[in-house]
Amino acid sequence: MSNYVIETENLSKQFGKKMALSNLDLKIKTGGIHAIVGSNGAGKSTLFKLLLGVLSPSHGSSYILGQDSQSLTPELRGKIGFVNEEHTLPGWTKVKNILKMEQSFFPKWNEAIYHQVIGNFNVDPEQKVNQLSRGERAGFNLAMALAKRPQVLILDEPTLGLDVVAKQAFLESVLFTEKSEESTVIYCSHQMDEIERVADQLIVMEKGNLINTSTPDAFCQRIHYWVVDMAGQKPPKKQIPGFLQIREIEGDYHYMVIDQGDELKEVFQQLGAVSAYKSSVSLNQAVNGFLSRNHMSPEQLT
What we know:
The protein is an alpha/beta fold. Helix content is 31%, strand content 31%. It has ten helices and 14 strands. The strands form three sheets. It has a six-stranded mixed β-sheet with strand order 6-7-8-3-9-10, with helices on both faces. A four-stranded antiparallel β-sheet has the order 2-1-4-5, with helices on one face.
């Protein structure tokens, strides 16, 4: 039996002239919370649709729980949970009616988990769905998804638009269930504070390609700021090994670089620096700097 809940092999999807995914080879191990991040248009949502069999690939293949995504059985689909940013539910019916229907479809429904999660949100079973706030719909969707006891749970921007209280409740529910049920969670978000809190593994995608897979800490350790006092004009960016980004703050230049050691200090000194020292970065800074490098034209590097 495979140790991976998700595997893709040369997975590609093209829409007209746009390549949404390009020969993606991705393996996600069983267990833990795996965060997928990237700029808009990186291919994250396309990947999820391919994994769930909603779209067909242009070429290549994808597998979820060991099964080809293009031939998922009803039994296997029952082992997969999915919550998206829209939290789409029929607005005309009551919460209790949707709950009753969901319970009838899933024989392994865990009522204790449902109540554990829904208790973090102010959801009245007698309310119609269209009377719920966005945060309440998010909590209701998550509670139902987790009560099904999925082996893999895909969360696509689930906290988008939620207030601080609802977001906190949502994240606590995800952490509680992942630890208690040993589910594998695939978490997609642009909010790095969420990723920093929940993720065991960090997957970075850009322009349909996989460009990083590691722990968040390991990723941050690759990237640093160098705070540099230049006596004269700042050197062209292309002369700085591993250059990602630059900011000027109170007369000093803050160079963000990747995969560079302490020897970079000598490079700055050779380029005219009076002083240069290295500092660490947050996950948010590391990801944003890393992605910005992939959007630069050759002209912007000079």
